[in-house]
C-alpha cells in the first residue's frame, strides 16, 4: 500500500477532469472568479505593493504578470504578490477552515501563464488542490487554529504544490517529491492575524506551491514519506496529536469532497468568523427599525475558536477591524453595512463607532457545529438590549448568506466582482467576469481579459 505522500503525488500526476462531478466544477469556477475580483481590489493596498518592491523583474518569456501592474516576475514571485493581493482585504472565499481560492488561484494564474495552460487546466488544478486540502483536513480531528497554525498557510502550501504539479505535468515520482517539499515549506501563525503578515501567509503558500513543483521537476528530491512519517507534516502540525494515518487507499480522484464542502463566498470584507453575527444584526436592525442610539448593549454569543481569531477588541485601523467582533457589530448597526467603505482607518476611528464598540459584549461557547468544516459554534446569536429595557433577539444564524448551503446567485456574484474590479479594469470588468464564468471554453490563461486590459 502506498503511503499518504505518494498517494497525493499520484493523484496530482494522474488527475482527470472528466471524472469530476458538476458540483466541483461549479465550486472551482466560482472560487477562481471570486478570487480574481478580490485580488484586483486588494492590489491597491500597501501590503502587496511593499512585497512587489522586494521582487526582481524578469523578461516576459520567463515570467508571469503581477496583476494589475505591468511588471513581470518569476512565476513563484508573481504568485506571492498576487496571493497577498487576494487575501489582504479578507474578502476572499472560505472553505475547509481556511481560504483555498486565495492560495490556489494566484498560483494557478502564475504557473498557468508560464505553462500555457487552458481554462480546463485551471479548473483541474484547482480541484486537485482543493481535494488534497480536504483530505488532509479530514485526517486531522482537531482544529489547526487551536494550535496556532493558519490552515490557509499550512494546508494551502501542500494543496498548491499539487495544483502546480498538475499544471507542470510532473510524473508520479516528481509530484511525490513536490508534495514532500511543500510539507517543509508550510508555515503561518494565527498570532499574526490582524496584521499585514496574515495576507503574507496566502502569498507564501502560493509561492511555495509553485516553487515546490518547479524544484521537483528540475530533479530536487525530498522524503517520500514526509507527510505520514512520525516526524513528518501530519504529526508535527496536529492539534489533536492523533491524526488518522492508518494505512489505506484514500480514494483520491474516485471519491469527491468538494460537492459537500463547497466554496463559501464572502459578502463582507472581514474575517468569516463574524459573518453570521453580521447577518443577524442587519436582519434585526431592519425588522425592528432599530436606531443605534436607542441600543444600550449588543450581546453576541459566538464560538470560542471564533473569538480566538477575533483578537482585536478596540481596533484603531481598518486592518485591525477585520479581526474584531466589536467593529462589525457597530458598523452594521450604525451604517447598515460592513463593506469596503467601512473598513477604513477613518471610519473605524470615528467617535461614534468607537463608542458603540465599547457597548458590544461577546460571550462564547465551546460547542462546535457538527456538520460544518469551519471551527465555529453551531449558531451565532445576537441580542439588542434597548435603553428602554426591552431585549430584541435576532433569529440564530446557522450559515451566512453566500455559504455553499445559501449560495449567491450569478447576478450577486457578478455584482460583487464588478464592485471589486471596476476601479482597476474599468470597461473590461464585465467581459472578464463572463470569461471566468466559462473557463471550460478558455483556450489559454493568456487570453484572459484580466491581463490584456490591466497590462495594456
TrEMBL record:
Belongs to the PrpD family. This is MmgE/PrpD family protein. It comes from Candidatus Burkholderia verschuerenii. Transmembrane segments: none annotated. Residues 268-426 form the MmgE/PrpD C-terminal domain. It holds the Pfam family MmgE_PrpD_C. InterPro entries: MmgE/PrpD_sf (IPR036148), MmgE/PrpD_sf_1 (IPR042183), MmgE/PrpD_sf_2 (IPR042188), MmgE_PrpD (IPR005656), MmgE_PrpD_C (IPR045337), MmgE_PrpD_N (IPR045336). It comes from the Bacteria. Residues 6-244 form the MmgE/PrpD N-terminal domain. GO terms for molecular function: lyase activity.
